[in-house]
Amino acid sequence: MNAEGALAPWFRREGLALLTDFYQLTMAAGYLKEGRESDAVCFEYFFRDLPPHAGFAVTAGLEPFLGYLANLRFAAGDIDYLRSLGLFDDVFLDYLRDFRPRCAVRAMPEGTLAFPHEPIMQVEGPLAETQLIETALLNIINHQTLIATKAARVCLAADGDPVLEFGLRRAHGPDGGISGSRAAYIGGCASTSNVLAGKAYGIPVSGTLAHSWVMSFDSEADAFRRFARIYPGRCILLVDTYDTLESGVPNAIKVFKEFRDAGQEIRPAIRLDSGDLAKLSKRAHAMMTDAGLTDPLIVASNDLDEDLIADLKRQGAKINAWGVGTHLITAYDSPALNGVYKLVSKEHNGHWSPRMKISSNMAKATDPGRKNVVRYYNDHGHPVADVLFEEGEAWPEHGPVTGRRRGLPHLPVRIRDAKVGKPLLQPVFHNGEPTQDSPAVEAIRERAQEGIARLPDEYKRLRNPEIYAVALSERIGDMKEALLESPELTG
Predict the structure, then answer these.
(1) Residue-wise over 363-382: b if at least 16 C-beta within 10 A, else e?
(2) Quick one: which of 78, 317, 343, 435 has the fewest CB in 10 Å?
(3) Cβ contacts of residue 142 below 8 Å, gap of 6+?
(4) One digit per residue, pLDDT tens: the chain, 491 residues?
(5) How many alpha carbons lie under 13 Å from residue 362 in its C-beta half-sphere?
(6) Considering only CA atoms, which of 381, 305, 213 is closest in space to residue 313?
């Protein structure tokens, strides 16, 4: 097991079987009473909408989910608690006592870019088992994908400057902080202030100092001098405790020059945490360079998000690193991803029959059948569209590619510039255990960054991004159209 697996937090422990909604248990017990617990079914996880203003999502949470699934057991205390509710009989409780996941899971590799309505994960197996894992799957994947996507937007706004994730103290509880730091790193952040996440996942940790350090000394200059003496290689001085331009920056300059004159290597670095960050950074930069301190590092923080960072960039702020906390770790403008887990097919006598949710709200109508997701790229290696093919359906490895519109499956779609196609869903879990070693979070981050780099700029705009095309194959389109006309048709 790699370092991540050895140190990973809650999701690799047993004792999480009751991390579920109550109705998952009542349905599973009902399936058992009806003799249908072993019916073979296929569920798919997808999200209906991107967060506001986003043109893509960065998938995250797969490795934690697989860790949860591999260790899913109902302990004696769980069984005792469920018995105390007076609702479940001994047959069902015995079923839970012996429960071991045996489903087959296919998924997009963690860190893959994804778009609305395409399956990110597919779960096949016995009906009761695949039902029981729904809530935990949604809890893990929705949250981490949301935070990774937010981090990607923040990093796009920073335009190559490092983004330091500072969100632990404002995160939604301990796991919201730990899993959020992991997801933020996958999304592109350079480091985290969260030491436990650093230990668990090998994420670089970073930090500066607090106002209390400065206030605990009799003089600001002495506070800076002492800190620089202790940490000369990681010295970023917080300059806004009293007066940024009249006191903080001059005292920082004084200390940096003292070290330089003494022949000690120390990069001049400050942090701004309040006030007009554009004006202060420009003034501070000028003061430092005028004093002969070249290549100063100026870190900004204070309730930053992608829009504020982009605006500060537009104003010419002399900031070259960004500490982002609350708005990132809580996905402040969109605190939930509307990922769902829907039954799409059921096996009967060796034949898979499509299932489809049909709602008065057509936006909630699902796409039937077990599916593959094929991403098509142009000559330059940029993705141009994804097409959902039925499992077993032949798909063209290169263009031209035709299909159907998702919302109007009778209307044709032609994918232009499609030169090469690559299937995205891969086997990741089978017969009780993952099918491959867990990748290091650094490798997942690299996959996400490569995907973002390949994505054309029009999908990466912070406002009004182009809508990425997700189409149905001809066969899925015919299937969906038939089920819309006759919902009881399942063959």
Answers:
(1) eebbbbbbbbbbbbbbeeee
(2) 435
(3) 47, 61, 336, 337, 338, 339
(4) 344 444 445 555 667 999 999 999 999 999 999 999 999 999 999 999 999 999 999 999 999 999 999 999 999 999 999 999 999 999 999 999 999 999 999 999 999 999 999 999 999 999 999 999 999 999 999 999 999 999 999 999 999 999 999 999 999 999 999 999 999 999 999 999 999 999 999 999 999 999 999 999 999 999 999 999 999 999 999 999 999 999 999 999 999 999 999 999 899 999 999 999 999 999 999 999 999 999 999 999 999 999 999 999 999 999 999 999 999 999 999 999 999 999 999 998 889 999 999 877 777 789 999 999 999 999 999 999 999 999 999 999 988 899 999 989 999 999 989 999 999 999 999 999 999 999 999 999 999 999 999 999 999 999 999 999 999 999 999 999 999 887 665 44
(5) 7
(6) 305
Q: How many residues does the chain have?
A: 491
